[in-house]
Design goal:
2 copies of one chain form a homodimer. The first copy, chain A, is mostly helical. Helix content of chain A is 48%, strand content 7%. In chain A, a hairpin with a 7-residue loop joins β2 and β3. Chain A binds a DNA duplex through α1, α2, α3 and α4.
Chain lengths: 182, 182
DNA sequence: CATAATTCATTTGTATACGAATGATAGGAA
DNA sequence: TTCCTATCATTCGTATACAAATGAATTATG
């Protein structure tokens, strides 16, 4: 994953930074004000509004960086969503498409495409539920089951690399706050 | 925004919870283990891998919840990305499309569509750069400029609502950790 | 049992989001 | 000036992601 080049006055996108090794030093990034004095167009009575300090903007950037790290390491060529689906199917054993979607917070229209692509990769299988004519039961193929262990290991490495800019105690706090937020 | 109904053993998606008022009590959500004992298919020598504890998964859910809150309150019918673009154009005055994309960490292919849709809404204007035949200069229309103040106010309310599950001190810590992460 | 409500899978439409490629333009180097 | 490189805007392809609607099947309700 990469994005076009940048000039110094813009955000250094995640793909432009090495994500291969754990970094202890943090280069200048999105939180550094893009515009020196943000309040330029804000009247004197308005409170300053900084996009770079908004939780939604930061969440989008953090998610973006995580996706870059995931894709860089995902030798198995799965997207984060496909990865989540695989992990959940392994946990559940077998379930319907809509149920799988709820297990990973993906809606019915989206999970359809995710499952289709996992089927194309021969990682999951679909069969009609004999007890419910509406349902298609999803389960892992033997090939899919074979990959679960390495998927979990890969997922752990991606998480570690994503959290690398934080100290160990900060990582725990971040996860805790995110769990409270979701 | 909404998603299909859920059974109790699945994630309660953000759209199913009221986001209109600030909540002090937190209902059971994604962080509650979806599967009681996750390690079912993990061999005894494998460390437990919990999807619900992975930073990427939590970031996706947090981003998802923020988007729901944003859309619920976005009376101006802007997406979060369109909103970010408007704020940045107001700060920058005028800039090229690619430059705007870098200012909000959106690649050239994506910013094209974002700007197109803002043009359709008559919020921004495009004109050829007289000094550089490659560039299209983006600027706010008078209508766009008129909306900036209410956009900033709306953005602040969305951020507040998103952070509502956290105590004030926790909110500052979360923003700090996200800034370190990005 | 018969009807109503729900659930499931699917499709269509819209909007990010990124990779890759392309043609036009600009700027620096030989 | 010529060539090389970089940048810009654009297009195509793929993949989430959600709203809304649909038809089929199931479950709940009267």
């Amino acid at each position: 994953m990469s994005l076009p080049g940048q000039t110094p006055d813009t955000i250094a996108l995640p793909s432009r930074r090495p994500v291969t090794e754990v970094r202890s030093e943090r280069p200048a990034r999105a939180q550094d004000p893009v515009v020196a004095e943000n309040g330029a167009r804000t009247g004197p009575e308005d409170p300053p509004y900084r996009l770079d300090d908004q939780v939604g903007y930061l969440l989008r950037l953090a998610n973006q960086r995580h996706t870059v790290i995931f894709q860089d390491r995902a030798i198995l060529a799965l997207t984060p969503t496909q990865f989540s689906a695989m992990i959940r199917i392994a946990e559940a054993g077998s379930c319907s498409q809509n149920h799988l979607g709820r297990l990973i917070a993906v809606d019915a229209a989206t999970i359809k495409g995710v499952v289709d692509r996992l089927r194309t990769k021969r990682l999951v299988r679909l069969e009609k539920d004999p007890n419910d004519g509406r349902r298609n039961l999803i389960s892992l193929t033997p090939q899919g089951r074979d990959r679960i262990r390495s998927l979990r290991a890969m997922g752990q490495r991606v998480s570690d690399a994503t959290l690398a800019p934080l100290r160990p105690d900060e990582r725990a706090v971040l996860l805790d706050l995110l769990r409270k937020l979701v």
